[in-house]
Specification:
This protein has helices spanning 2-5, 56-65, 67-74, 109-128, 148-165, 180-190; strands at residues 10-11, 17-21, 27-32, 42-47, 84-88, 96-101, 133-136, 172-177. By secondary structure, the protein is α/β, with parallel strands linked by helices. Strands 1-2-3-8-7-4-6-5 form an eight-stranded mixed β-sheet, with helices on both faces. The structure holds adenosine-5'-diphosphate (ADP). Adenosine-5'-diphosphate (ADP) binds next to helix 2.
Length: 191
Amino acid sequence: MKKRMGVLLIMKENSMKVMLEMSQGSKLSICQGDITKLDVDCIVNAANRSLLGGGGVDGAIHRAAGPGLLQECRTLHGCETGQAKITKGYNLKAAYVIHTVGPVYSGKPKDAELLADCYWNSLELAKEHGVRSIAFPAISTGVYGYPLKEAVPIAAETVWQWMKEHEGYAIEVILCGFDRQTCELYEEFLS
Ligand code: ADP
């Protein structure tokens, strides 16, 4: 990736790090920590098909956003795997939450397709709403069992591909790893 795209490695505050930059200002960054704390236009939720809340990052987002989020989610009538739906962010700093449903890992080729769809469709929806900064958790790598080493390249490649295809649209995309290992894998892959 490095040679093809011209990498700029810049240390930013705390654990936020810009990994790839485009001439018109788009950036792909990585960050370690709690996605609910990020000051971005939009955070992505690794939701389940009901969109009615759950554990992991989903639970953390609902707790931080407050009950308004669940109320709005009830009006959405669920979401298919690989698809994405948008709500407001309520008590979060983020104005929007995009809820996407990752695949439950099965080891079949379809998993990778559906996981890539989550990132791609979330970015499409973000652009429709004028989002200029968006943070993703490592979708499907918790309870849904997607091996991190397989999920990280899919996440990073898909996001970067989308950014290249929408070069005229300046956006900062942050891949947020909850733990160090996830961040290290993103960093290794993007370096
Ligand atoms: P899934 O069901 O899609 O696997 P999980 O919430 O179980 O969703 O896990 C997805 C990823 O989100 C995991 O890598 C987990 O470590 C991470 N995660 C959990 N809580 C947070 C949080 N507050 N901020 C960022 N990432 C989180």
